[in-house]
Specification:
The protein is an alpha/beta fold and about 230 residues long. The protein has a single domain, classed as Rossmann fold. Helices cover about 25% and strands about 20% of the residues. The protein is built from six helices and ten strands; from the N terminus they run E-E-E-H-E-E-E-H-E-H-E-E-H-E-H-H. A six-stranded mixed sheet has the order 1-4-10-9-7-8, with helices on both faces. Strands 2-3 form a two-stranded antiparallel ribbon. Strands 5-6 form a two-stranded antiparallel sheet. Strand 5 (about 90-95) and strand 6 form a beta hairpin. It starts with a strand and ends with a helix. The relative contact order is 0.20.
Length: about 230
């Protein structure tokens, strides 16, 4: 079961190796991909967050509100500044990395909606994965979409987007398990990489993951704070 909660809100660097791991407003919009339904019935918009290339959450959490911005891009019609996509997929351990096929399908569905329904240029969409194996699988999923120019969608790791930006970023957190184990995402490397990924989005950001797993990690409150922040807008 996956649901999307949409919220309208307002460096270059070296890519690092992946660390080792030990009441909303209803809308009728629904899309399908690979036989899976993407339910957008819990969508709500809010204008309280300033439009910015530097989202307020990283500014609060990582920079103690010291960031300043000089760009205010227009919003994309029908696309929230933040969209939380909740997905109870299942992670696989692949040579120490992680892959989540159901979550990858949901990411593909988001890209399908952005290009096919909302008219976003493929070259202005970035898909970022927390794990290298998820990145590989997402490259395959995106390449199979029947959309013109889909090869222009950039698919990379969180770190791979350092030094670049896209109008829309779609993030895949990958982790999903009953132990609420989110591996390196709970540590300082995970926080840094989340910061990189969030600040690559100029106009909108989709956050795709098993938010039960992410929010209930016993090692960090970062993702619970992010979830609550988006839902407070």
């Amino acid at each position: 079961m996956c649901t999307a909660v949409s919220r309208t809100s307002t460096s270059s660097g070296q890519q690092l190796a992946e660390p080792s791991d030990t009441p909303a407003q209803r809308t009728e919009a629904t899309a399908t991909l690979g036989g899976l339904a993407f339910d957008q019935t819990t969508a709500r918009t809010c204008n309280s967050l300033r439009i910015s290339t530097k989202p307020e959450f990283p500014n609060q959490r990582f920079y103690n509100r010291t960031l300043t911005t000089g760009c205010n891009p227009d919003p994309i019609p029908n696309v929230g500044r933040f969209t939380i996509v909740e997905c109870d997929g299942h992670e696989e351990n692949i040579h120490g990395s992680r892959r989540n096929q159901r979550e990858a399908d949901k990411v593909g569905m988001c890209v399908n909606l952005l290009i096919g329904e909302y008219g976003v240029s493929p070259s202005e969409i970035g898909v970022a994965a927390a794990y290298s194996e998820q990145k590989k699988h997402l490259q395959h999923v995106i390449s199979q979409l029947s959309l013109d120019g889909v090869h222009e969608v950039k698919v990379d790791s969180f770190d791979g987007f350092q030094g670049s930006e896209r109008d829309v970023m779609v993030l895949s957190f990958t982790r999903s398990n009953e132990d609420n184990n989110i591996g390196f995402l709970a540590g300082s490397n995970g926080a840094r990489r989340l910061n990189v990924a969030l600040t690559r989005a100029k106009r909108a950001c989709y956050l795709v993951g098993d938010w039960n797993t992410l929010r209930q990690s016993p090692e960090t409150d970062l993702y619970d704070d992010l979830y609550e922040y988006v839902n407070s807008l």
